[in-house]
């Protein structure tokens, strides 16, 4: 699937990462550069996944580590002030995520969660995507 040479790929990676790009866009560009084609705006599916790859019966969510409370991640620290508010708010997000994932799995979709902190190493992320999408 990966038709690019190593040099080409690192050039692509640099281009993808430059600027103040939203995490979903970075993942989309990376998928595209790896040769995957996908659909956006999947409002018909639980949780409205960011990316849908019908050919692989896979949906992808790109999650912010804080808002979706990435387990054991240094970016997912619960604020010390207004503790109750944040626990309700973030706990609600986590619960909803789990429910949506469950629904999607029952519908026969494979669910891939990409965390924002994983965007720091796009080569590693590219390998992860290729392992999960074949
Ligand atoms: Zn994280």
CATH topology: Endonuclease, Chain A
How many DSSP helices? Answer: 4
- CA-to-CA gap between the ends? 9 Å
- CATH C-level: Alpha Beta
User: How would you describe the shape?
Assistant: globular
Strand segment tally: 3
Strand order of the largest sheet: 1-2-3
Q: Helical proportion?
A: 40-55%
State which percent range the strand residues make up.
Answer: 5-15%
Taken together, the total number of domains comes to 1
What's the main sheet like? 3 strands, mixed
According to CATH, the homologous superfamily is: VSR Endonuclease
Structural features, described:
- The mean pLDDT is 89.
- The chain is an alpha+beta fold and 134 residues long.
- Strand 1 and strand 2 form a beta hairpin.
- The protein has 4 helices and 3 strands.
- Strands 1-2-3 form a 3-stranded mixed sheet, sandwiched between helices.
List the helices and strands and how they pair.
Blueprint lengths: L5 H12 L5 H11 L17 E3 L4 E6 L19 H24 L3 E6 L6 H11 L2
Parallel strand pairs: 2-3
Antiparallel strand pairs: 1-2
Helix pairs in contact: 1-2
Zinc ion binds next to loops.
Concise overview:
With 134 residues, the protein is of the alpha+beta class. It has 4 helices and 3 strands, in the order ααββαβα.
Task: Spell out the key features of this protein.
134 residues; binds zinc ion; 11% strand; 3-stranded mixed β-sheet; alpha+beta; Endonuclease, Chain A; 43% helix; 3 strands
């Amino acid at each position: 699937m990966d038709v690019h040479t190593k040099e080409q790929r690192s050039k692509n990676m640099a281009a993808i990462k430059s600027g103040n790009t939203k995490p979903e866009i970075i993942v989309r560009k990376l998928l595209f550069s790896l040769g995957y084609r996908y659909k956006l705006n999947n409002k018909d599916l639980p949780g409205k996944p960011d990316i849908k790859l019908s050919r692989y019966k896979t949906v992808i969510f790109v999650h912010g580590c804080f808002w979706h409370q990435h387990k054991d991640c240094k970016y997912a620290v619960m604020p010390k002030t207004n503790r109750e508010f944040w626990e309700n708010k973030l706990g609600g997000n986590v619960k909803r995520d789990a429910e949506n994932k469950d629904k999607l799995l029952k519908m026969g979709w494979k669910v891939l969660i990409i965390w924002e902190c994983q965007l720091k190493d796009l080569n590693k992320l590219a390998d992860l995507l290729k392992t999960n999408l074949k």
